[in-house]
Amino acid sequence: MLRIYCPYCEEHRDEDEYAYGGEAHIVRPKDPDALSDKEWGHYLFHRKNIKGSHREMWYHAAGCRKFFNVQRNTVTYEIEAVYKIGAAAEADQSSGKSNGEASA
Prior knowledge:
Layout: E1 2-6, E2 11-14, E3 19-23, H1 37-45, E4 53-59, E5 67-73, E6 79-84, H2 89-93, E7 101-102
Antiparallel strand pairs: 1-2, 1-7, 3-4, 4-5, 5-6
């Protein structure tokens, strides 16, 4: 089970307190009505599905009820960084608190 650090609650909690929110940093189209069906479908359904280091959005459902981003290795499940929405990953990585814990 993953132990995920919540940057708002400032503590590690078990994975079952969180809900996965999908790939992080997906930018919504500014004018969705101007998109073709193919372009809109690509926005909705096409994701990178990276093997290795990947940025994800998580929701602390059983805690502060806020979204935040996690950089996680999808092969080893190691959490490399945790940072608030709108913050740069590199800035929060340098604070000793941002790293998550993973366990089998």
